[in-house]
Amino acid sequence: MTRIIELKHVEVLYPLETKPALHDVNLFVEEGELVCLIGSSGCGKSTVLKLIAGLIQSTGGIVTKPDRVAMSFQQGALFPWLTVYENVALGLRQMQTPEDLLHRIVERELRAMHIHDFALKYPSDLSGGQRQRVGIARALAVDPHVLLLDEPFSALDPQTTAQLHDDIIEVWRRTKKTIVLVSHLIEEAVSLADRVILMKDGTVASEYKIELPYPRRENDGFHKDVMKIRKDFFA
């Protein structure tokens, strides 16, 4: 398989800081993989996501990534003055997509994320799960090589989270996109990912290949994989 993302000996040192946010980070993501970065707060997982998104630059090492990367943030990060339709269309308008093609793409992504009926509503009219679906639809609309998800389920109730987990797996299977997800929940990572990357103190501590069939929470091996990672997480 082709490595679509690769970080080699990467360091990130923010201005005025003495301790690097990342140091000697080595990791890769293969094309079509769904990879989850986990770790406690401040371990560097969101910094890695920002590097891949191009929101920050490394201060050392080599970062290889595709040009077309889209990111969905916590709670969707929607523009409150735009309707759901216009939020999803935003990136396409910036790309000067012809209006008829733009309309077809927005309609497709709204239906895929089960929010077509909310197209003319504003973010304030939506639940947390609906706002997150809009954010994911907006990211997918620009047809990225890599979809980045920054703790997209952290503020949602368990039932909505489970539904969105199913939606993400369906999007991944339908589009064959490379997806990199950040989470602080081991169970969530094992439920979704091909590989789980555990980060500690600004670097990669361990990696785990998850080979369970979907849906995973019903599988006998699910808790075994969770406990294996949990042991390292709290070590």
Number of strands: 9
The CATH architecture category of the largest domain equals 3-Layer(aba) Sandwich
Structural class comes to alpha/beta
Q: Could you name the CATH topology of the largest domain?
A: Rossmann fold
Radius of gyration: 18 Å
The average pLDDT is: 93
End-to-end Cα distance? 32 Å
The level 1 CATH classification of the largest domain is: Alpha Beta
Helix run count: 7
**Order of strands in the sheet with most strands:** 5-6-7-3-8-9
In CATH terms, the superfamily of the largest domain is P-loop containing nucleotide triphosphate hydrolases
Largest sheet: 6 strands, mixed
Overall number of domains = 2
Envelope shape: globular
- Helix-residue proportion: 25-40%
Low-confidence stretches: none
Strand content: 15-25%
The sequence of SSEs as H and E is EEEHEEHHHEHEHEEH
Structure description:
- This protein folds into two domains: 1-68 and 145-235, P-loop containing nucleotide triphosphate hydrolases (Rossmann fold), CATH 3.40.50; 77-143, no CATH class.
- It has helices at 45-53, 84-94, 99-112, 128-141, 158-175, 186-192, 221-233; strands at residues 3-12, 22-30, 34-38, 60-64, 69-72, 146-150, 178-182, 195-200, 203-209.
- The strands form two sheets. A six-stranded mixed sheet has the order 5-6-7-3-8-9, with helices on both faces. It has a three-stranded antiparallel sheet with strand order 2-1-4, with helices on one face.
- It is an alpha/beta fold and 235 residues long.
